[in-house]
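stuck on this chain:
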Amino acid sequence: MTVERIYVFKRFERFWHWSQAALIITMMLTGFEVHGAYEFFGFGKAVALHTLGAWLLISLWVFAIFWHLTTGEWRQYIPTLEKINAIIRFYLIDIFKGAPHPYRPTALKKHNPLQRLAYIVVLLFISPVLWISGWFYLFYGDWKAWGVDGYLSLEWVAFFHTAGAFMMLAFFIAHVYLTTTGHTPTAHIKTMITGWDEVH
């Protein structure tokens, strides 16, 4: 079997990925505690950590968006349906037969079509639901000054924020599972740590 090593993920991409993962995990843990699912940090501390995590994640996203725009890496997320049926079939059937993955990542095309579609859903739907509802949640005391108190309901803002959190949790679980589907269970994780991918 021939193995080719490809440098796929640059240093900033790896920093951005792991920092974002840590912040999202922190926000899920604290957010579900604020929602009353369990008690770990304590309500007050959970609120403070959740708010801090949100501001840090916004700051990280600002830098990441700037980096993607200035380096041209935003093109990695343009959706495509090329080979989408083969990739869906791979994850549903062929992976259990030991078949090779129908997509090979390169430095110019790091994400397969299914990943691109998933990231577009996160970027254009799940994240806006969380950010917009979170913003109104955080600044509830300013609604009257903004003139929106007659149009918004705290219950609905909380509903959409919680729904967005569950969607993000579902994405997170699927994302973690798919990291185990490389040629070894830890191959994709190793790639995101070192930047180098081994294509068999």
Notes: DSSP finds seven helices and two strands in the chain.
